[in-house]
Amino acid sequence: MKTIIPILLFIVTSFSTAIAQNVAKFEFKSEVIDYGDIEKGSDGVKVFQFENIGTEPLIIENVYSSCGCTVPTWTKAAIAPGKSGEIQVKYDTNRVGPIRRTITIYSNADEPTKAVKIKGRVLDPAEKS
Length: 129
Known about the structure:
Layout: H1 4-21, E1 26-28, E2 32-39, E3 45-52, E4 60-65, E5 70-74, E6 84-91, E7 97-107, E8 113-123
């Protein structure tokens, strides 16, 4: 009995380690995009670029924004290990004021819910003095 318990413990540990290694994994070039100060009505499109550094294909199931003023689009096909993908974010720059938005990504990655952020400020050219 004393020998069986350590053997079972070893088998369970080895099995869980083997399973944990077979996952998809994001590596973003940047998890925060800073628009800086931009003028009202300017181009609000920015791109989050990432690589799948895992061992399994990465599938993005959905991407949500914390506000309707930000529209995400993303790579719909599975991203093979070692390959890159992107999430494009379009912010409505007709809204003057600070930009502080979270984009939430749902996927099969080791971190199934991942948040990235955009920030900046939209300036109204009519308010310049």
